[in-house]
Amino acid sequence: MDIIHTHCARLDVHKKVVVAAIIVERRPKEIRSFGTMTSDLLALSDWLMSCGVTHAAMESTGEYWKPIFNILENNFEVILVNAQHISKVPGRKTDVSDAEWIADLLRHGLLTASFIPPLGQRELRELTRFRSTFVKERATLVNRVQKVLESGNIKLSSVASDVLGVSGRAMLEAIIAGTATPEQMAELSKGRLRIKRTELSQALEGRVKPHHRFVLTELLSQIDSLEETIARFDQEIEEYCRPFEEEVVLLDTIPGVARETAEIIVGDWH
Fold it and tell me: Domain locations in the chain?
């Protein structure tokens, strides 16, 4: 096989340790271990550069490759590879270590690199994924509000589709205060929900106890905090989307694809 890359390194990445094996033309093979703190990774980068390494390969296992990639991508051609692909390449001898085998495959251009988006897109993807996590947490808290209401014989969700909407939130605050009658709480409804005031007053006739009010207060406080966090993420993501605004706007025109979904799609685009 022809040698494609003559100055190669294989990085075996773990949570606390990175083992680097280098194969450089006219030099003996050398293996060193480094920690995963930023200072350690900078030392790894300096060592690879001093050895004349131009290409490095590592497996795309878990999340541990990301800090290494962040440090090395500016100085080396870093190839992220799938372990399953490596196992399918024929010709490995039983006495060859993983590091040597992968470095040898890299030298001969036999590794298929996984797609890694540009830095700006990676940052956008990380932001949209964190936002999605907070959105899911909010949905979980809303479900808990529903369970507390059911526990107190309140059937608000049977009449109001959005328990945390403007009308629902006003009624929840009244439930927590514990001073309004079901009819008075039903009068807090807004818009089209007002035509359901009779059903609302029936749904709000319950057996709410002090512990229900306490739990509802805490849940609403958590929801408010998450909504503020999500709003801040929305603003930050909008800034990171500026280089991709044309794509986001085009995706937003597709029926069923809202802007938030468009931002996620752009962040995950391969």
Answer: 7-107
pTM score, whole prediction: 0.67
Amino acid of residue 172: L
Ordered per-residue pLDDT tens for the chain, 270 residues: 434 455 778 888 888 888 888 877 666 778 889 998 999 999 999 999 888 888 888 876 677 888 888 888 888 888 887 655 554 444 444 434 455 555 556 655 555 555 566 777 888 888 999 999 999 999 999 999 999 999 999 999 999 889 999 999 999 999 999 989 999 999 999 988 999 999 999 999 989 999 999 999 999 999 999 999 999 999 999 998 888 888 888 888 888 778 888 887 777 665
Residues 132 and 228: their CA atoms lie apart, in Å, by: 14
| Token pair listed for 80 | 């992220």
Fold classification of 7-107 is Nucleotidyltransferase; domain 5 (3.30.420)
Rounded-to-integer distance, Cα 116 and Cα 73, Å: 11
